[in-house]
Design brief:
156 residues; alpha/beta; five-stranded parallel β-sheet; 5 helices; globular
Length: 156
Amino acid sequence: MGQPGVHVLEVGSFEGRSAVWFLGQLACGEGSSLTCIDPWIPTVEFTSDEVTMAERHFDSNLTRAQATSRGTLHKLKGRSFNILPTLKPETYDVIYIDGSHRAFDVLCDMVLAWRILKPGGMLICDDYDLEDHCSSVGVPHLAIDGFLACCGECDR
């Protein structure tokens, strides 16, 4: 069951569906961990009731997933731009960014995540093909393309 000592960070967990997969497939070996960051606060996309329900689903989903995994779970409730700078450099083997869909937020998450990614680690971003429904905030692909233009050849 999984390689030992794999450390995964997920930015944007919502109901925990991808977190369940990470805990069951990547962060499931002895000494492995999954750290999940989400503010679980209302947005233009989700009402207060929807966010409350999503966090309850997260807690329930991950409680069940932990029962069959050797990895540990760390739930960090708050905004990624406040939490990521507090995490230890070069800690994570895999970082999955799926929080905000606003270009600036995605770029900030990528930049802040870069220093906590282990050398040779993998930084994964979701929602690249998301359509632009509000041109004033941009979409993830703008941030991802910009980050790769600046750091695509950087060692990590």
